[in-house]
Amino acid sequence: MSKVRWGVMGLAGAVVLTAGVWSSRGDAPGGGAAPVEAARASANTPADLEREVRALRAELEALRQRQGRLEQPPSPVAPQAREDVPVEEDSAPSREAAMVVHEQRRQERVLELEAELEVAMNTEPRDTAWAGSTESLVTESFRGKDFAGSRLTRVECRTHLCTLEVEHEGNDAQAELLISLSRVPGLRGQTVVRPHNEGGRVTSRVYLSRAGERLPMTLRR
To answer: Region entry Disordered: which residue ranges (predicted)?
Structure first.
C-alpha cells in the first residue's frame, strides 16, 4: 500500500498538504527512491489507482477529524446532574394536630375515670352512719355564702364515696366550686369535679371520697 501512495502523490498531494499529514506521518523519502517507486506504480491499472485514491481520501478525512479533535481545547467536565432527592415530608403531626390528638386522649381518659367512679358508686354498699352524716354536711354547706351561685340538686353517699349534682348560675360559680368544697370542715378526702354543660345549663358532677380514702380511679403514668 505504501508503494501506491507514493505513485499517486501527484493526484492527492494538494489534499495531503492542506491536511498537514506530513507532520504527523514523517518526512518524505529522500534520494533516488521516489523515481523507482513511481515507476513501479505506473504499472498499476486505473481501477487500482482509483481505489487507492478513495482509500487515501478516507484516511485523510479520518486524520482531519482526529486532528480537529486534538486542536480543540478540552471541554470542561460538566458536573453530574444532581437528581432532585425527594424531601420526605414530616410524618409527625403539626402542632395543631398534636394538640387535637392530646385533647382527644385526655377526654377519653376522663370518660374512663368517670366510668370507674360510677361503677364503684353503684356497686358499693351503704354505710348508713357515715353516709347520712356526710349528706347532711354537704346539704348544709351549700346554704352558705361560699356556694353563692351554685345549687345542690342531688347528693348520695355510700361507704367510701359520695356523688353530688350541682347547678351553677354561670361559669364563674362553676370554677369556684372545687375551692368552696375544700373549705368545708369534715370533707377531707379526695375531690373530683366533672363539668357537664349541656343545653345551656352549667352543671357539675362531684365525686368525694371518705377522709383517708382514695377515689377508686386507675392511676396511669
So the answer is: 27-47, 65-96
Residue 183 in 3-state DSSP? coil
Concatenated DSSP letters of 186-221: T--S-EEEEEEEETTEEEEEEEEEPTT---S-----
Helix axes 46-71, 9-19, angle to 10 degrees: 0
Give the chain's length. 221
108-209 is a CATH 3.30.70.920 domain? no
* pLDDT tens, residue order, the chain (221 aa): 433 333 333 333 333 333 333 223 333 334 444 443 433 444 456 566 566 666 666 776 766 676 666 556 655 655 555 555 555 555 556 888 888 888 888 888 888 889 999 999 999 999 999 999 999 999 999 999 999 999 999 999 999 999 999 999 999 999 999 999 999 999 999 999 999 888 889 999 999 999 999 998 877 65
Domain boundaries, the chain: 2-27+34-68, 108-209
Report the alpha-carbon distance of residue 91 to residue 182 in Å, rounded. Answer: 46
Is the distance from CB of 169 to CB of 186 less than 8 angstroms?
no
